[in-house]
Amino acid sequence: MSSVSSAIGNLVQSLAAIGASLLNSVFAVIQAIFALVQDLVASVLQLAQAFISFAAGLFQGVVGFVAANFFAVILVGGLYYWYTHRQGGTASQSHKRIT
């Protein structure tokens, strides 16, 4: 009878070890997901910092002044183009006849 109780004890220990291993695996996956999110956020912040540094370096001095005005004209012209074509051009295409 002692061999049956020993076998049952070994079975319970094995099942407990399997459960602990599964729990450790779940924790490892969660930790890997957190590490991935942390690296992703750090990379995005580093990219934003590099872009801001590039823009600050670009818009310094006379060349930067000219470039800033060029981009401002492009931005204003693009907004005007978008606004007038969003309206469908109804303001300039009146079909009223003056008699």
Characterize the structure shown.
- This protein is mainly α.
- It is 84% helix and 0% strand.
| Helical amount | over 70%
State the total count of DSSP E strands: 0
- Give the distance, in angstroms, between the N- and C-terminal Cα atoms: 117 Å
Please, how many helices? 2
Protein topology:
Elements: H1 2-58, H2 61-86
Give the tags:
99 residues, mainly alpha, 0% strand
Short description:
This protein is an all-alpha fold. The protein has helices at 2-58, 61-86. The protein is built from two helices and no strands.
